[in-house]
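ok so heres the complex, two chains, lmk if somethin looks off
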Amino acid sequence: MRKTVRKFSDYLKDNTSTNVSPWDSYKELCNEFGDDFMNFPEFEYRFYRFHGGEKDDFDSSSETPKKTFSDLPVEIIGMFVKKLRPIDRILLRLVSANLQSIVDTYSPKLKSRHVRFTMYSDFCQIYFRTGTIELKKLETGYQIEDFRNTQTVILSNFDYREGVLNAFLTILGHPKTRMRMFKVEIDLSIEDCFWLTENLSKSLGDSKIWARKFVFDGKKAAPLLPFLSFVKPGALRTLPIYGSLEMQQGLYAELAGTEQWRQARKVDIPWLNGPFDPDQLQYFAHFNCFDVRLSSLTLAELMEFVKTLGNSENFQKCILRGQFQITADEYAAAGNKSVLREPIEGTSDRELELRFCKGWEGSLVIQRKKKRTQKN
Amino acid sequence: MSVENAPVVDVDEAAIPVEKKMYYRFESNDKKEFRVSELAIQQSETLNRLVEAMGYTSEDVENKPAIAIENIDGKTLKLVFQWCEHHKGEAIPVDDGSVPKIVEIPEFDAKLMDIDNGLLFKLIWAADYLNIVQLLNVSCKKVANMAQGKTPAQLRRVYLLPSDEEDEAAKRAAQEAQDPRAREVEEEFEERKRQGGNSFF
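and the predicted structre for the whole thing:
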């Protein structure tokens, strides 16, 4: 370097000005002499010295500043992390394992009512109250964008899947994050799905995501179970499912085995994308409320299910959708009833009311209601 | 008020007029002396407690030696006191959730902090040491702004951050420096393992 630039102040004089930021001037220097020529803090130090009126021969390393960012106490770096914008926190987390741990410790918890995480094989979006982070896969690496602040950074030679994982953990990984609604929309190959969930599981450990409502849209049959396992049981009340591997394969028993399913109060499965055996209705009886689409339902199956609901402690209302062949008259005749009402075990002032609704898609509403007194 | 006009009195540059109020004298670790107003000192919880405990009168300030601040150099301390003088009398933020978390950097502060990274980090360190909450807030915000739009490689360069490999090497070096015998034992163990021994002993 000494041979190339005899006096560094000559370079600064010829190539920099106070109107151009030190960073932009530094990029010019790197373009001309290569990235390893001089590190930025040293350049910046000399830049300010020179423009402050001091001459600067290059070889004055003894005056190089000794305080660096890493010398600051961890709590101060934590303060700095808190002041970063989400996209910058995501990028800082990629620098080293040490910083990853500091970012995870000091990141503020997410305060957002609605959060949406969408991931496709080449595009990912995390939407939350104060920002929208988007990642787009490139031929080599990926591009990350803070949609709200229109800031884009290209990360060449970085792995897209790792990038998504890092962004997810930075924004949503705080153990105190609380959301009213957390929507996950996934359209990935099974292999990518398992890679993501396995790595999320490793990173989150025992920590669970607190969400009142967890909406899952598995598009072409992404598995719900691993994603559901990240949600805190007990906190989760409502679970709308727009499609998943389990739905497609009719694996309701597996879902029913999870604590999240057992402790939820309401489930909606508005689209039928797989076999739904009426026997599987038993897995829904503990919910306060559910809305499911059935492939078929016989009169005997309905009568059996109504009996099950009559024994449920929590049940309030359900909607059974499908092209059913049963009519209200048939149901009434089968039970020798004049009204479509059924008693509830253990209570004398409540009963189940059945309503058969006509429309382009037949549906049946069963609801727990106050018992009607018989008029004379 | 511009950065240049902030009434911190560097005793070497004592030509600047001083208001007739209670002032305290402080000395940096490189023996530079400053006269700072009582109101400005209130911005620093550490200094405020210190002067309260000392109970100096105006005569004491003149007759007794300047209060030494041993961990901070003159250049940094001058910036600190300029900031305190400019913001004297302002409320000190309390982190109780009542103050908005979004930090705006006032024009004066931005100009004051238009310095090289080394000095900026010293300023942050001094703000932390002297417990000047708002200066710490704005200086951290300034450092945070420097990160905007940078790739991990650029962040490494701007903040001189070590990579995982460098962190690991530094950790090893520190361990070795602490206990050179431990390294020897480890090497001996590795050597025995290579030779097919099952037990170290």
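quick notes: The interface with chain A takes residues 101, 103, 115-119, 121-122, 124-125, 128, 136-137, 140-141, 143-144, 146-152, 155-164, 167 of chain B (CB under 8 Å). thats all i got rn
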